[in-house]
Design brief:
With 283 residues, the protein is mainly α. It has one domain. Helix content is 80%, strand content 0%. The chain starts with a helix and ends with a helix.
Amino acid sequence: MLYLLGFAIVCASIVVGYLGSHGEMAALWQPYEFLIILGAGLGAHISGNPWQVHTATMKLMPQVIMGGKVNKALYMDSLRLIYDILNKSRKEGMMSIEGDVENPQSSGIFSKYPAVQANAALADFIADCFRLIAAGNMQAHELDALMDMEIDSRLHELMVPGQSIQKVADAMPGFGIVAAVLGIVITMGAIDGPMEELGRHIAAALVGTFSGVLFGYGFFAPIASRMEHIAHEEIKLYESAKATIVASVNGLPPQLAVEFGRKVLFAHDRPSFAELENVVRSR
C-alpha cells in the first residue's frame, strides 16, 4: 500500500503545483507521446530480458503494490521448522528425518508450517541442506561454503526483476527526448502555420521530455527499489536458515542454534530472544 500512497503523492504534487501556476491540464494530455515513451520502454524490456524475467517481474507486482510476503511470522515459522527438524534428528537420529527432507511437500514436519512449505525454493533449500548432512560426514565449513554459493545464486535470481525495471527507469528520460525530438520534427513541418498550432506542437514536444523524466524517476525507479527490498527480505530467510544449520553442525543444541538464525534477521522483523524461546519450548 505504501507504493500506492507514494504514487498518489507524486501525482498530486505535480498536478496541484501545475494548476497552482495557472497551467491547463488539457495541455498535458498527449497520448501519442505516452505511447512512444511507454511503448519504447516496454519493447526495450522485452528485447533485453529472457522470458523468465518477465514472468518473475509480473509475479512481483502484487507484492510491490500490496507489500511483500516475508514478515516476522514467516521468519518465526522458518526457525521453528528448522528447530523441529534438529530436535527430531537429535532425539531419533539423522535417519528419522530422511522422509521429511526427501519430499518437503508431503512431510509431516513441513506441513506444520504451510507458509514455508508454500515457498518451494526455501523449503527445498532447507531440505537439501539436511539431506547433505544426513548423507555423509560433511564438515561445517564445507556446508557453509556450499550454502553460500546457493544463497548467492538465489539472491541473483531475486534481484534480476528489480534490476531490469531499473534499466527501464534509466531509459525513460532518453525515450522522453526521442518523443520530444519527434514533436519538434512535427513542429518544423508546420512552421508556416498559425502561431496557435505551433504552440500546441511545441507543448506536445515538451510534454514528451517531462513525461519521460516523470515515468523514469516517479514511477519505474520506485518499483525497482521496492523489488530490491523484497529480494533482500526474502534472502534473509535463507541466511537465517544457513546460520542455524551451520551452528547445529558445529555442535550447538537446537535451542542455541536457532538463536544464531535469529540474529541474522533485520531488526524490524526480528523476534526477541524471549519470543523465540517461548515458541520453541512450547512445542
